[in-house]
Each structure stands twice: as structure tokens, then as C-alpha cells.
Amino acid sequence: MSAPRTYVIQTLGCQMNVHDSERIAGSLDAAGYVPARDGIDPDLVVFNTCAVRENADNKLYGHLSFLAPTKKERPSMQIAIGGCLAQKDQGEILKRAPYVDVVFGTHNVGSLPTLLERARIEEEAQIEILEGLEHFPSTLPSRRHSAFSAWVSISVGCNNTCTFCIVPQLRGREKDRPAEEILREVRALAEQGVNEITLLGQNVNAYGVDFGDRAAFAKLLRECGRVDGIDRIRFMSPHPRDFTDDVIAAMAETPKVMPHLHMPLQSGSNESCKRCVALIEAIDTLASLKKFELRCRIHPSPPTSSWVFLVKPRKIFKKRFRYIAKRNL
Predict the structure, then answer these.
(1) Which of 80, 83, 120, 136 could disulfide-link to 49, CB 3.0 to 4.6 Å?
(2) Is the distance from CB of 145 to CB of 27 less than 8 angstroms?
(3) Model pLDDT for residues 205-259, shown as the tens digit of each residue
């Protein structure tokens, strides 16, 4: 009996990619693969990529160049590229790195074992990019990095149309999981000893738009807070436009929801954001934060964090950081 094939996964990008990588690992485990031990060359290298952060795709092609000599020496080693950059570049990846074995997209992460087997049998690179979500990644088996905390995907995709943002093109329009399915997963995680969950979505607090319930996210926070064994609940990333009073109330009145808010700040300049049709404006972000601080008595000064999208940075650099200083971010 031959030894099981070994793998490593390198994740480039956001928290959703980290979550997807755990599901990719779980799918490989279910197919009989095992994680490679440190210092041992793996039989499979998987890159779960990002197309939003410029440095991420530079890193990918740098890593692929580094692997090229090893692939030449060990043709049986397989290389697979998934994630947002794979969804965007598709066949372009094989043009730049023809020794890659599999390219798969954001909508079919569970297909990787089948694609790898097909690539071995046919001795030909496989590309499979779906335009719609096959199933929620959270329904796939998982190899979590922590025994006590877990990512829970509640939605995938985004319905906003910010000019600069490629996420709707790569992740599709928003699809929301049924609340009962999410709660079943949360209860199952609690039974496994998990005591902290992070609810994930590209626009997490818009949850419910897919089935027409604007109050669905606030309800979900409260329901998750009733699950025995779960002590801490987090979520990311929210959108200021969907940061409604009922969500703030749910955060304030559900002790298990952590008093922390990660609120994206596209630029710090409303003028620049309007020119590029951004749907997040500095004034909206500040208003949401003020509402949050006034309502959340559970913490005298709720901690906040953000990321900043640079629009014409030379012109608005000072304005942006004056805004950040105002919030002490």
C-alpha cells in the first residue's frame, strides 16, 4: 500500500480565504491526503490566492518561479492555484506558469481532489472556474487551525458596485445561508469545544438581503448568543451603510458579541469616493461609529479597527490621516 500523498496550503489574502483554506484542507483530508510535516517536501502545494491586494499576486508568481526547479526535478509533485486570482486570471496562470497542474476558482473549492486526480490520470493541466456558487464552503469538511475558535461563513459575494472593487466579479452577487443552517453549524462547533466564532461575509451585516429580511443579521447575532458553549462572537467585515440601529442594539444587548468593530474606511475623502462610485464614505463611517459608541454601554470606548483604500493619495493623504486621527484608529 502506497503512502498517502502530502500537502501544504499557502493562503494569500483575506479572512474569507483563510476560511476557504481550512475547507480545502478538510476536503483533501477526506480524499486521503495528509498535511506534510515540516522539512518534508510535499506531494501537493496549494496556493489560495487574492486579487484585491496587489502584493498578493506578486507573491504568487514569485512562489511559482521558486517552485519551477523543484517541479522539473519531481514531476509527480502537483501545484494547484485557487482563490480570487485564479477566478480572475484563469488560463493566464498556465501561460505564465505552464507547470501548474490545477486552477480552480472561488465557487468550487471542494472540487480540488477530483481535479487533482483527473490531472494525474490525463497528465494534463485542469482548469475549472464556475460562474456561480456550487455550495457554501462552510458545508465542506474542515481542518481548523484552532480547536477553540472557528470561522462561520454566513454569506458569500456582494451586491455593491464600487468602481474600484473586483469582489462582486470574483465572488458573485450576495448569497445568504439559511439562519437555521448557520445555527446548526454553530451548535455543532460548540459541541466540539469551540467557544469563539467569527461570522464571515464580504458584506457581513447585509445578511438577509438575499431573502428580503433587513433585520436578519441582528436576529442572527442574538440567536448565536443563545448557543450554550459559545462565549465570544465576532463578525467581519461590516459595511457602514448596513450598520443599522437593530444591529447596534443586538451588539449592546448580547453579552457574547464582542465590543469590537472593524469598519472599513475607503479613503477618508467623500469627494474622492464619489468620483469612483464608492459606497463607503467617511461621513457614513464616522456616523456609524458614533452611534455604536453611544449605544454600546458595555464598553466605555469600544475598540475599532479599519483598512484604508487609497484614492489619489497625493491629494488627500493629509485629509485621510486627519480623519484617522479623529477616530484614534
Answers:
(1) 83
(2) no
(3) 999 998 999 999 999 999 999 999 999 999 988 887 788 889 888 988 999 999 8
- The answer to whether residues 80 and 153 belong to one domain is no
Spatial contact of 215 and 168, defined as CB atoms under 8 Å apart: no
Under the banding of pLDDT at 50, 70 and 90, the label for residue 169 is: confident
The answer to whether residues 84 and 177 belong to one domain is: no
Whether 288 contacts 243, CB under 8 Å: yes
Domain identity same for 121 and 151: no
| pLDDT above 60 (res 28) | yes
Q: Which three cell numbers stand for residue 114?
A: 477530483
Work out how many domains the chain is built from and give that number. Answer: 2
User: What's the pLDDT at 308?
Assistant: 54
Q: Say if 135 falls within a structural domain.
A: no
The upper half-sphere exposure of residue 19, i.e. CA atoms within 13 Å in the direction of its Cβ, equals 24
More confident residue, 289 or 104: 104
Please tell me the distance from the alpha carbon of residue 91 to that of residue 57, in angstroms, as a whole number: 15
Strands (E), the chain: 6-11, 34-35, 44-49, 78-83, 102-104, 126-128, 149-153, 155-156, 175-176, 196-200, 232-236, 261-262, 304-305
Residue 309 and residue 166 in contact, taking contact as beta carbons nearer than 8 Å? no
Cα-Cα-Cα-Cα dihedral sign, residues 49, 60, 279, 263:
positive
Which CATH number goes with the domain that contains 44?
Answer: 3.40.50.12160
